[in-house]
Amino acid sequence: MPNLFRTLSRCALLAGAVMAAPVLAQTDRFAADPRLDNKPDAYGVSSRQAAHKCVAAAEGAAKTAKFTGVDVIGLKSVERKPEGYEIEGWVRVGGGGPAWRDNAPARGSFECKIVRGRIVDLGFDDVPGL
What we know:
The chain is of the alpha+beta class.
């Protein structure tokens, strides 16, 4: 009986690891980006955390403006500054929004500035209504 218990425990552990692997991969969509690291700056924020903050803010701002199908599709630049970060990326929206007429998808870019761990500026280019 102990061997059966040990075998079942190993199977459960393996199944849990297999099921958790996609979840871990989804938590950091920029895992392979060499510009991002986990080294905190003087304010306790790493470039990876800053990128994720900016991505979440950009997607949130577009959704708040009633755009649909909002997705940040990549990062253009990640710069560490003395008091924080400047991050630029590409955003794709599926339609909607305040100035949208034909509901056609569009691509644009965003710029985000983090100072002392907080987002202080977020702007968009080439997406009408943002």
